[in-house]
Amino acid sequence: MQIELRTQVIEPRRKTFTHVSNRYGDRPASRYEEGTIDLQGSEHFQYKPLWAPDKEIYSPDFSELKLADPYSYMDPRQYYYTPYVSARADLHEAFGATLSYLDKRGMFDRLPEAWHGVLQNIVLPLRHYEGAAQMISAAAARYGWGTSITQCFSYASFDRIGNAQMLSRAGISLGGGTADPLAVAKTAWIEDPTWQGLRKHVELTLAEQDWGKAIVALDVTDRVIYQLLYTHLDDVAIGSGAGSYSLIAQHFSTWFVDQRKWFDALYKAWAADPEHGAANVETLSAVVSQTLATVAEALAPVMTAVDGLVDAGAVDALAATVDQTRSAYAALGVATEVAS
Amino acid sequence: MTIAPKAPRKLSMKDRYSALTRDLDWEPSYVSKEQIYPLTTFEGITIHDWSKWEDPFRLTVDAYTKYQAEKDKRLYAVLDGFAQSQGHLSLTDASYLNAMKLFIQGIAPNEYNAHRNFAMLARHLEGGGPRFAALCQCLDEMRHAQTEIHTLSNYNKYYGGFHNFSQQHDRVWYLSVPKSFFEDALSAGPFEWLIAIGFSFEYLLTNLLFVPFMSGASFNGDLPTMTFGFSAQSDESRHMTLGLEAIKFLLEQDEKNVPIVQYWLDKWFWRGYRLLALVAQMLDYMLPREFMSWKEAFELYFEEQMMKGLFEDLAYYGIRPPLHVDKAIQEKEHVSHQAYWILYQFSHAAAFTTSVPTAQHMDWLEEQYPETFPTYRKLWEKEQRNIDNGGRHFIRGLPQLCQVCQIPMGFTEADDPFVQAQRESIFEGERYNFCSDGCQYIFEHEPVKFRRAWLPVHQIYQGNCGGPTLPDVLNWYGLEPGDGGEYLGSIDHQNWLKWHGDPAHVENDHAPAAAGAEGGQ
């Protein structure tokens, strides 16, 4: 039997907000669009910032990287708050399931000793790297121009503290419920010569006042680190009976795929900008070239340490990853010079 | 006897939380600490030991995302259901939405501003604990901005006044009140922000801001806003805890911080209180089904909870109640009436509508304000006689704005409702006007900052707002017909009657719809 539901039909006066329809016409808008477009104030700022009296509270001038219209860039994932936290709830739930499986089955104790060393000496110190990445991303979230861009960085900032927490939890499991491995890793990060190149690079990046240059330097470094630790070493681990390493690494490589989706789109927008494109490419090329050179040098002792633990060809993989990264930037429209 | 190997000591909850947050920090050695944290010294605040910050809640990223995702799922289910069933038709009256128009224009953009500036704290505070707490709030504030917009998005499809909230926040005269309030905080350093927004706004005044809107929603059939309010509550209680920890932390770190914090409290109490004049008039005049007067809310949420509870605790640190709090208490019988009278006369240039309160509503006001409302009632009854003679009035001139709060100078002396208050100060040869001692006090502490204020009336006179005539300015404001003016006979009102098919459905004894109605343009 068909039940006929009677509802009152009322023609809406408009389908969305004026600032959204000005851009796309009066069509139904997504929640991402309504929660993003023109959300940041853009004119008649009342007071000068006490911490930057030469600028406005929101300003495109906090970075050399600019878009004539910041909303020419939109997050391809269409993440507003709700889909973002839902996706991350899934990520962290999956990580938690992995960790409790590893704990329950005593997998950390069964890890070949060399791979135990990789986790302890190579992976855990990176929780400090992730902590710094949180701060560098937060600067972009505050000082960037336009909600479509800053929104991505605010979520990325939260992602990085989340990654640091995943690493820390893995470390606590590795220590059988204690924080000892974290303390060892922290000492290594601060004192071990292996890490000083990277730590110096991170501290210099934290001191960079141009949020755009800082975040690009971080991203270049991320590309190399994530490729080497969570993809290259993941493969090697599976091949050498260290499946537990892979179970941990997968969550980081999964996250990084997501990070690439919106960040690569931003590079394209920067490079293609009708007004600032050429200047953006110039800035990007300089930062990418310099960072690749720094990272190649800074990570060399780390990769040597990896090769000392496991037969991973990590030193060679570093060189290959730097080249790969260079090509990836070229494909995004950012050519770089090979440092001599 | 053999000694069993000692089992490793498991981490306590506190140590585990610390391992996941503050333990990530290290002392830099390749650059100076000042290069990494350049913003923590210029405000004069001294912090000796960031590790003394007590984490007010121990939330980790996995727990945060899980709870928040579950809450949002429930909230958006309500929004979808309400939209699908044309739930807006079961509001008490279309005029109720004026409260929500103010909300999306005045509050949502500032939730967004809070989102951006908590990102600043998540970058610049020197402790990993407070940075992470700030980062959680940074995300929460984005949640609030977006869920507010999504909650009100459905009303925007059927009613005026909502559609251009973002640009209007940057341009329209009465919205410069909340805009200048938040931009004052955005342009301050991280510690003043913590006291201005983290403490004064999110702790001291938060109940006075949110309870009127959210309870108003529940009394007037606005299920989505009420659900949003409930859903935001657990976030807000985290924000309150953070604000309270922030002020204690600053006060405990160094005695020299006390007078700095005291000035910020004096300033931000008064700034916030003046901003709340918009809430006061909403509560007393914009809700078709009223539930609590401004006076009652102020007594309960401020005088009882804050003056008696909080400030007695803060006295231990050498903090006294904010200056000018006595004026606010004196004004509680007047401020809503005076604020609505201002908005009533200027609503032809606003994105909400106003109307003379009904006789029944005035009876309610008289019960709430037996001492003072009779005076204001005479004003409304005179206006009603004007309307009956075809003369609903709007003020054609432009008002003098207070240099600090930017409200038109229509407030009276706190102790004499028949004398208009006006204060002035000369700074570098220029005269500046203020609505109150509180606003003048702030200007005299920070004249360089406040002389730069973007005052909408001055800007109109300087020719920066679309042109010399009223229609030019209203066009520049992005107002459409029906956004502002008189409610009776407005597009919203006419539609409401049409959709309900029966004019008697509207429970009021308003004057005939034709009486002097004037649309937004």
Let me know the average pLDDT of chain A. Answer: 96
Predict the CATH topology of chain B.
Answer: Ribonucleotide Reductase, subunit A
CATH class of chain B: Mainly Alpha
Order of helix and strand elements from N to C terminus of chain A: HHHHHHHHHHHHH
What does this structure look like?
The complex is a heterodimer of chains A (340) and B (521). Chain A is an all-alpha fold and 340 residues long. Chain A is 69% helix and 0% strand. Chain A has one domain (78-331): Ribonucleotide Reductase, subunit A (Orthogonal Bundle), CATH 1.10.620.20. Chain A has helices spanning 18-24, 31-34, 81-104, 107-110, 113-123, 126-143, 147-174, 180-191, 193-207, 211-239, 243-272, 277-309, 314-331. The mean pLDDT of chain A is 96. Chain B is mainly α and 521 residues long. Chain B has a single domain (51-500), classed as Ribonucleotide Reductase, subunit A, CATH 1.10.620.20. Chain B has 22 helices and 6 strands. Chain B has helices at 13-20, 33-36, 61-84, 97-124, 128-158, 165-171, 176-186, 190-204, 206-219, 223-253, 257-275, 277-286, 294-314, 325-331, 335-346, 359-368, 373-388, 437-445, 447-450, 456-461, 470-476, 491-500, and strands at residues 353-354, 412-413, 416-420, 423-427, 430-434, 485-486. In chain B, the strands form 3 sheets. Chain B has a two-stranded parallel ribbon with strand order 1-6. A two-stranded antiparallel sheet of chain B has the order 2-3. In chain B, strands 4-5 form a two-stranded antiparallel ribbon. In chain B, helix 3 runs antiparallel to helix 10 and helix 4 (97-124) packs parallel to helix 7. The longest helix of chain B is centred in the first third of the chain and has 31 residues, at 128-158. Residues 505-521 of chain B have low confidence and may be disordered.
